[in-house]
Every structure is written in C-alpha cells, then in structure tokens.
C-alpha cells in the first residue's frame, strides 16, 4: 500500500452505514476501494450517479461509466443515474452526508483552496464550492507537502479560496487533524511518523488534542 492508498484507507474508516458520500478528484477517488465490507454507503458523483462501486480493473472498464473527474468507475446493484441539475440539487439540498476532497492548501482555520493555481488556466470551481456548502461533513485527503516540499497546511491561503466553510477533518500522509472553532487539533500520527516531523512540515499553528500522546501513534 502506497501513501496515497494509506490516506484513502484511513478516510474510509470515517464512513458510517447509510452515508451518502461524494468523492473528489485525486486521492478521494481511491476511498471507494477501501470501504469496510461491513459498512454500506452510497457513493455519489456530480455528473449524475448514485451507487458508484470500486475502481474497475483494465478488463472491466466501460468507457460510458465515468465519475465527475472522467475516471472509469463501476456501479453497484440498485444504482441510479440522473442529470447534472438533479445531482447538484442533492448537494445543495443537504442530502450528501460526507464529501471527501483533495486540496492545494488548507489554512489555519480549516478553509481550503482546491480549484485554481494563479497564472494557470482552469475550467472553474466545479462542484467543490457546492460540496463544501451543502455537505454535512467534509474530509480533506492530501499529501502533507507539495512537490517542492512546502507545507500544504498554511497560515494563510495563497491560492484562491474555495469557500468560507471550514472542513471537519484533515487526513495527510503524516497525520490527522480535527478542525475546531479555535483552529487545527492534531489527533493522530501516521505509522512511523514522529511528532517532530509533523511540527517541522506544518506551516500553520495547531493545538494538541487531549487524546493525543506525543511520540506515539494514536487513533481518533
């Protein structure tokens, strides 16, 4: 299991029976492959699917079945298909239990930037803003640093903000943070990661959760 798969598997542990879950582009799409067998959730895609299944292998790809990121998907028995307007009505109507999103940056308040890089051409914010505003819970899955080794958890966003709505949980390859009224709270270290490494690679200030033991791996 590589680090991105580890992040996805950790995020899957946050899902509960009956959740309607939207998976964003990137690491979030991997979550579909790690949902526990004893947990039944309904995966939603903005392009009009409810009932997305695990990622297909090469022999079972159907070019007509893709998610909002245009990646091949499978569908489970009982799944449904609908137009984009109906899909966004579900989101805006508060019917999505959990959204799992990738990000470019997260700030010290738990607000994210995930749709535009200054100076680069982009198509627009897509469904990210709607998912942040309409979902009951939002989880971020991301690498802790970018390709230049810079922290993606920053004091202030330097990329365009997606929404003023704060996310609820941040899961990286190094740690897990809960987002509370007073900022970020470190609640868990990834296996083999030290507190000092997280401290060194996190630009934003953060609190230590009461359940956290420095230097030891803990679970939320």
Can you describe this structure?
Pfam families: CoA_trans (PF01144). Keywords: Transferase. It comes from Sporosarcina globispora (Bacillus globisporus). Belongs to the 3-oxoacid CoA-transferase subunit B family. The protein has 5 helices and 13 strands. The protein is an alpha/beta fold and 220 residues long. It has a single domain (3-208), classed as Glutaconate Coenzyme A-transferase (3-Layer(aba) Sandwich). A 10-stranded mixed sheet has the order 4-3-2-1-5-8-10-11-12-13. It has a 3-stranded mixed sheet with strand order 7-6-9, with no helix packed on it. The longest helix has 10 residues, at 3-12. The protein is globular and about 45 Å long. The model is unreliable at 215-220 (pLDDT under 50).
Number of distinct beta strands: 13
Q: Biggest sheet: strands, sense, closure? A: 10 strands, mixed
Rg over CA atoms, rounded to whole Å, is 17 Å
Number of structurally distinct domains:
1
CATH-defined fold name: Glutaconate Coenzyme A-transferase
CATH class: Alpha Beta
Spell the H/E element sequence: HEHEEEHEEEHEEEEEHE
Relative helix content: 10-25%
Organism: Sporosarcina globispora
Keywords: Transferase
Family: Belongs to the 3-oxoacid CoA-transferase subunit B family.
Protein name: Acetate CoA-transferase
Protein topology:
Elements: H1 3-12, E1 20-23, H2 27-30, E2 42-45, E3 49-52, E4 75-81, H3 84-92, E5 98-101, E6 105-107, E7 112-113, H4 128-134, E8 137-141, E9 153-154, E10 169-171, E11 175-180, E12 183-189, H5 195-200, E13 207-208
Parallel strand pairs: 1-2, 1-5, 5-8, 6-9, 8-10, 12-13
Antiparallel strand pairs: 2-3, 3-4, 6-7, 10-11, 11-12
């Amino acid at each position: 299991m590589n680090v991105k798969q580890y992040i996805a598997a950790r995020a899957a542990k946050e899902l509960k029976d009956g959740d309607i879950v939207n998976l964003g582009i990137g690491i979030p799409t991997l979550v579909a492959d790690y949902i526990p067998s004893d947990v039944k959730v309904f995966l939603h895609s903005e392009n009009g699917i409810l009932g997305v299944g695990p990622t297909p292998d090469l022999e079972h790809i159907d070019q007509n079945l893709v998610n909002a990121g245009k990646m091949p998907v499978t569908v489970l028995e009982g799944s449904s298909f609908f137009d984009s307007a109906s899909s966004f009505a579900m989101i805006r109507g508060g019917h999505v239990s959990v959204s799992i999103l990738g990000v470019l940056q997260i700030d010290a308040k738990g607000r994210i930037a995930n749709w535009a890089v200054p100076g680069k051409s982009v198509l627009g914010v897509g469904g990210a803003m709607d998912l942040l505003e309409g979902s009951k819970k939002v989880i971020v899955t991301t690498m802790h640093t970018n390709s230049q080794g810079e922290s993606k958890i920053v004091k202030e966003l330097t990329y365009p903000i997606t929404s003023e709505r704060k996310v609820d949980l941040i899961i990286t390859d190094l740690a897990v943070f809960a987002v509370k009224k007073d900022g970020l709270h470190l609640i868990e270290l990834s296996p083999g990661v030290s507190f000092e490494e997280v401290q060194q690679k996190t630009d934003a200030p953060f609190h230590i959760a009461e359940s956290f033991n420095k230097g030891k791996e803990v679970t939320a």
